[in-house]
Amino acid sequence: MNEKIGFSISGYGVFVVLLAAAAFIVSQAAAGNIEMLTVVVFILMVAASPGFFMVQPNQAKVMTFFGSYVGSVKTNGLRWTIPLFKRVNISLRIRNFESKQMKVNDSQGNPIEIATVVVWSVDDTAEAVFEVDDYISFVNIQSESALRNMATSYPYEQHEGDDVALRSHPQEVSAALKIEIQQRLGKAGVKVHEARITHLAYAPEIANAMLQRQQASAIIAARRLIVDGAVGMVEMALTQLSEKKIVELDEERKAAMVSNLLVVLCSDKSTQPVVNTGSLY
């Protein structure tokens, strides 16, 4: 069911007409001239009075006539419509929904805790009122369901390559989450403006183990960088010694020099120099 514009006119003009009708009735009553026209005008004035309603900014009125949808009114101010129309108020303001922290498994089976905040508003008033029983509850439940499904589609952290992960690619993950939530809420006439992950962490039962794993990965990465730099520095030292003919080294002395330089450059502690006052042999 798609939204359509319902019948309504400015209530101020109708109010002026009713005032004129009231003045006419009073004047006729004062003159003692009560005729059928006066009675008819009085009946019409009383019958038209319930047709007034007020539309606040960023609100709408959904109108039905004996169970049939006849349209929605979004024009602000005092309005008037057919008094027999039943009117339901619905807010068009932007709202926030913050989910509770949920424990789910990522794509690799690791238990994680995750939560999100969803910024949404009603876009189609007819669908919001008639397609679902309670559109606010529908938004809450479907947002949490979409978050749970999204979390199981990605790993918590990136291990190799350029794979999208929950921790390393927040923008991509948020975009995917917004699309999935919008697909679920579109049938309820709801527009999703933004969806962001507000909490992301390993579950307590594996947090310590995963922290040690992250520390080990960081140490390995740092050691790899140090070794690559040390090898380059040793290669540069040997090349410059050879090009500048500072000293001639045979293969055994080169091996000893390489060993000493790598120990100095790669050690995580200060090395103690040994002064050789004699021959290498």
UniProtKB/TrEMBL annotation:
Q: What is its main location?
A: membrane
Q: Which SUPFAM superfamilies match?
A: Band 7/SPFH domain (SSF117892)
Q: Which SMART domains match?
A: PHB
InterPro entries given in the database record: Band_7 (IPR001107), Band_7/SPFH_dom_sf (IPR036013)
Superkingdom of this protein's organism: Bacteria
Ranges for domain Band: 50-214
Nucleus among keywords: no
Provide the topology term for how it sits in the membrane: Single-pass membrane protein
Locate the transmembrane regions by residue number.
12-30, 36-55
**Location(s) in or outside the cell:** Membrane
List UniProt keywords, sorted A-Z.
Membrane, Transmembrane, Transmembrane helix
Instruction: Return the PANTHER family for the record.
Output: BAND 7 DOMAIN-CONTAINING PROTEIN (PTHR43446:SF1), MEMBRANE PROTEIN-RELATED (PTHR43446)
Q: What name has this protein been given in UniProt?
A: Band 7 domain-containing protein
Q: Which organism is it from?
A: Colwellia marinimaniae
- Taxonomic classification, please? Bacteria, Pseudomonadati, Pseudomonadota, Gammaproteobacteria, Alteromonadales
